[in-house]
Amino acid sequence: MKAKFLFFLFFQIFLQAENNKWISLFDGKTTDGWSPRSKVEKFEAINGELQLLSKVNVWVLSDLEMKDFEVECEVKIPLDYEKFNSGLGFRLTGKNGKPKGYQFEIDRYKPGAVYGIGLGGWLYPKKEQEIEYRNRSKNLFKPAEWNHARVLCKGSNIKTFLNQKIISDFKDNQSISGCFGIQHHGKGGVVAFRNIRARELK
User: Fold this and answer.
1) Of 133, 141, 148, 159, the residue nearest 68 (C-alpha)
2) What pLDDT is attached to residue 80?
3) For the stretch 107-131, what's the b/e string if a residue is b when 16 or more beta carbons lie within 10 angstroms of its beta carbon?
4) I want to staple 26 with a disulfide (CB 3.0 to 4.6 A). Which of 110, 137, 143, 196 is the partner?
5) CB–CB of 22/196 below 8 Å?
6) What is the model's pLDDT at position 20?
7) Which residues of 27-51 are buried (b: 16+ CB within 10 A; e: fewer)?
8) CA distance 124 to 160
């Protein structure tokens, strides 16, 4: 009886480990698995980085889709463009053009905030959450360095983290499943991503 219990226990641990496996969204060498939704000036894999340059607002979407997940990456923005804007998209839907879904904001002014693309605009922070957001995000984003972005989605609950610190924690069910994406807002300079990976949450 004890042997059967131990077998069952180890089997459950094995299943949990299998379900929690990270999936790399970027192999470090090619742009395989990613598709620009508009014309870009540059979209290349260079020195282990996924580099994106565009003169227009553009999204590049991954082939991988997930519902409940954890996704993370490192991102570095160009220093020469103060108003540079980028994003890490998740639960993105739509076959062509600009997708609908959620965007982890990547810039100097609202890093880690969440924008609903085609879902009503800013979802966090709302007006009444601005003070909370400023306290959470103060001095976290480092424009001259690599910054770590992380998102947890479980059902309607969405959490974002910037450089290991929580930024947002809210509920929204307008989009419950979709693919991942990276954005260039067309304001100059090259944005670089690396170590992009995701795993399903069971």
Assistant:
1) 159
2) 87
3) beebbbbbbbbebeeebbbeeeeee
4) 196
5) no
6) 72
7) eeeebeebebbeebeebebeeebbb
8) 10
**CB-based burial label for 57 (10 Å; 0-12, 13-18, 19+):** middle
For domain 23-200, the question of CATH label 2.60.120.560 is answered with yes
* Residue 47 pLDDT > 90: yes
Q: What is the mean pLDDT of the chain?
A: 91
Residue 174 is classified by DSSP as S
pLDDT at residue 17 is higher than 90: no
Render the burial of 160-187: b for 16+ CB within 10 Å, e for the rest.
Answer: bbbbeeebbeeebeebeebbbbbbbbbb
Q: How do the domains of the chain map onto residue ranges?
A: 23-200
Instruction: State if pTM tops 0.85.
Output: yes
Residue 192: per-residue pLDDT: 98
